[in-house]
Amino acid sequence: MTLPARLEVSGIEKRFVEDGRTVDVLQDIAIEARAGEFVSVIGPSGCGKSTLFNIIAGLEAADTGTVRVDGAAANGHVEAFAYMPQQDLLFPWRRVLDNTTLGLEIQGVPREEARARAGALFARFGLDGFERAYPHTLSGGMRQRAALLRTVVQERPILLLDEPFGALDALTRMEMQEWLAGMSTEFGWTVLLVTHDVREAVLLSDRVVVLSPRPASVAATIDVPLPRPRRLDDFAAPAFVAVETAVMRALRAGIRSGHA
Ligand SMILES: Nc1ncnc2c1ncn2[C@@H]1O[C@H](COP(=O)(O)OP(=O)(O)OP(=O)(O)O)[C@@H](O)[C@H]1O
Ligand SMILES: [Mg+2]
Fold first, then answer.
1. Has residue 28 been placed in a domain?
2. CA separation for the pair 133, 145 (Å, rounded)
């Protein structure tokens, strides 16, 4: 695996102008993830989280601000990031294995090598034996793991995950959260994750960045000073409750003072 990298995002501003109407989306956003850290970004719907990820991944330009990877300017350099967008669909006509090689194929990796690299991860992603299956024969959780596998196998230094579990039922979602907690710790990934779910953010992260309603600014950055990986059972512990409460308060304070 590629060594994880440090990500520094600072001073990001973004507004969209459509039909003469200006929509301010991001205001002076700063986020840091050191190598191997897991950082969650949480904020109200429509505040600008996906826009921020598009900017970090180099798919959209910021009006101002910088994105640095291991200290070097990365604006527009997509090579540093493996990005799982909010709607990350598997192609129904491709077998699961051939879905998971898509990112590598786009990078120009020959098909057989791509298949070998993706296939080697199937067991760890709970997809063993489903290489030749079509996506519609998988459960929702399995499809999300396949989409994650496609992202992870690209071996980019930083993972950007935009609400990877948003579409799952509550039980599957909990299983997936614990699974990702274990995987991210084991592999030492640098991860930036968007979520609406306070518990998910606290379970997975070293740090939670709370955004205000649009135009989003950083309302609070809250450390989670507990060893990883964590389990959902740990949630009764006073330290967890304290962090969860702090994140919830910051979210609600942002909404009360908000502009939305
Ligand atoms: N290409 C675009 N052109 C114009 N406006 C846009 C564009 N992309 C996003 N916006 C606007 O920017 C704002 C933020 O959108 P964004 O998708 O980043 O929010 P989000 O926080 O990811 O929301 P959700 O939690 O619902 O996924 C919205 O008001 C949206 O309408
Ligand atoms: Mg979004």
1. yes
2. 14
